[in-house]
Structures are given as C-alpha cells and as structure tokens.
Amino acid sequence: MKILIINAGSSSLKYQLIDMNGEKVIAKGLVERIGIEGSKLTHRYGQDGKYELTVPMKDHTAAMGHVLDALQHKEHGVIQSIDEIGAVGHRVLHGGEKITQSTLIDDYVMSVIEEYIPLGPLHNPANLMGIRACKAVMPNTPMVAVFDTAFHQTMPPKAYLYGIPLKYYQELGIRRYGFHGTSHRYIAGEITKRLGTPHSKVVICHLGNGSSLSACVDGKCQDTSMGLTPLEGVLMGTRSGSLDPAVVQFISEREGMTATQVVNMLNKQSGLLALSQRSSDMRDVYVGAEEGDEKCKVTLDVWAYGVKKYIGAYAAAMGGLDAIVFTAGIGENDYRSRASVCEGLEFLGVKLDPDKNKALRGAEGVISAPDSKVQVWVIPTNEELAIARDTLALAGK
Ligand code: ADP
Description:
With 397 residues, this protein is of the alpha/beta class. It has helices spanning 60-72, 107-115, 123-137, 157-160, 166-172, 181-195, 246-255, 259-268, 271-276, 282-290, 294-318, 328-333, 335-342, 354-359, 383-395, and strands at residues 2-8, 13-19, 24-32, 40-45, 49-54, 85-92, 103-104, 143-147, 201-207, 211-217, 220-224, 323-327, 365-366, 375-378. The strands form two sheets. It has an eight-stranded mixed β-sheet with strand order 5-4-3-2-1-6-8-7, with helices on both faces. Helix 1 (60-72) crosses helix 3, helix 10 (282-290) packs across helix 11 and helix 11 (294-318) packs across helix 13. The mean pLDDT is 96. It binds adenosine-5'-diphosphate.
C-alpha cells in the first residue's frame, strides 16, 4: 500500500509518499507560502528528480490539489491515479489528554483537535486545515491522525503536574504534555528491539533545532523535558528552555513588553542564537568557538551542561539507566556535542568509545565502549515512517 504523509503548518505543507512494501519514500515535497504571494511547490521524486511550481495557492485545499497533481504528473509523478494512495497519515500537534494514541480520523477526532487549539494555537488550526483539504480532494480515502503529544500521555501525575493552584490544571488543562512524541516513540521502539529486552531504562535525547529529552521505562514515557508548550526544557536553537518564570514579569516591566512579547522573545530570539550572538545553528556556534569566540564557547558549555543535567535527573527518576540514545540533527550528526554531553557521566556507568563516536554521522550505531555499563546509541529518527506505520496498522486493508 502507498501512504501519503501530511504535515501541515500555518502557511506550509510537507508531504511524503511512502510505499509500505519495503517502506520506501517514492516522492516528497513542500508547499510554502500558502495564502501568501509567491506560493511555491517543490516536489522531489526518484533518485534526484525535482519539479518546482510557482502558482498562487489561496488555501490548503488548493495546495493539496497541486500536491496530488504533482504526484500524478506525467513527467514528474510517481503514481497514475490518486486511487493508488491507500491512506493518509496526518501529523497533528496537540491531542491534550483525550488522545493517547494514533487514531482514525472521524468527527470526534476533529473536534478534539479543535478543542486543543488554545494549547496549540499555531499548529492545531493548520493541522485541521490539512485534514479538511485532504478530505475535500480524496473523500473516500481513510485518514489517520498521529499526535505529537500522544506518546507522553503515559507520564504519571508526579511528572506532569506543575506546582500551581490545581484549578489551572482542572479548568485550563495546564500541565506538562511534552512534544516530539512521534520521534520519541519511534526511538523507544527501535532501542527496545536493539536492547533485546522489554525491560529497560532509557534516556532519549532528541537534539535538533527544537530539542527534548524523555525518560522511558520499558518503552513507555515516564517523563519528558518539554511542557505545556515546546518552550520548556533544554537550551534550543532560538528557544531559551526552562527559566525562572519571574524573568517574564521582570523583563516585561523593565522593557515595557507584554507577556506575549516576552514569550515570543523566549521562543524566537533566545537559545543558541542569543547566547552566541552569532547563530541558532549548532554548526555555526562550533565554528565560532574554534575561532576563539568566548561567547560561542560559553554557549556550548551552557547547552551541554543543560542536557547532561536532564540525563542525570532522569537516571535518578527512573532509578537506573541502561541506555542513552542520541537522535535528530545535532544528536545524529555531531560527535562533539555527544562527547560533551557524556563527559563526566562515567559515575553513572557511561563510557564512550571516542573513535566510534567520532566516526558515526547520520547513521545508526553504538558509540559506547564494550565495557560501558550504559549503552550509548545513535539512532536516526524517522517521524514520517512512524506515522506511515501507524496509518498502515489502522487503515490498511
Ligand atoms: P528541527 O528541530 O528543525 O527538525 P533538526 O533535527 O534538523 O532540526 O536539527 C537541526 C540542528 O542540527 C541545527 O542546529 C544544526 O546545526 C544541527 N546539525 C545538523 N548537522 C550537524 C552537524 N554535522 N554538526 C553539528 N550540528 C549539526
């Protein structure tokens, strides 16, 4: 069966067509600037086939129409007819406490995505638009929603409750939800297979532009670093991660900014970018540090120290540690970041093999020494494949 994966943003739409017979990506692409002047589709297929189309696309339904046209295009297409698409899997941000696993999309699921718009104000409306656009152009194709928050719903109250008046949880749903759940779940499944036992205590480090860690016991999430929103946790590309909430009030009063403006600053102008005063991209921060830029060196220290603290905290929370897994842009590609995170964790039984670590980039492998009590792995994440597998399981005939 061929499955179409859709990841709809407010003005963008990413897609992949995966042939589940062999789990191969046969085409993928991106529509940018939907509803804005200069709408553009970039479609990739085969080994290195590329087709670009710049035409006005007033909404997601128009964009979906062009995606389906590209997939069936007589030169650049990969299918003869949309009937070949057996099911569609949609990435959805927030399912709150109501959705704990991937699910076939029906009116109830649509209403839950709508209900959680206040907690995912940028993404949930876009995800709904993506689903509606698909329904409009392929009304008889089964659709599955895969939620970023679902994997973390196994967290116990001690991990998800914030120490604020309970009414805010009860009435407004304010609690830790966690994000990147599809990635954490995919990695939890993969590492469980590699360890060869269903019983394990694993810290998953998804370190990219956005970063989050999770503590997984027997493959289930016990805790995770992102919270009500993806702002909490470790230092990220442009996000501050956790800080004293009084900082918001202090800056707001001193600078005459509203709370919304301060939180925007914490989301978009903080993190690596703010401390290095150079870039939100980890590669650039390393270049700066190599050139002797002290701000870049401190930025790298703050970043690695923060990630290390979460690993220690989660080892304590789980009462042990069998494995650490690195994934996402930084985790998969950067041996220096992995080395600095693991440095000093020998007391927990973590012993890296520096050569294996250095040699591994963008591929799977063990980077710990054979006598390391804790196995350290690099496993590339694949959120689209995880969505496709769920879609096949729920909608496959
Ligand atoms: P997103 O959260 O946007 O999906 P990614 O998972 O693609 O982000 O990660 C992007 C981050 O990965 C950037 O900070 C980038 O610098 C970093 N990265 C990618 N390749 C390397 C590399 N070879 N060395 C260091 N950092 C890298």
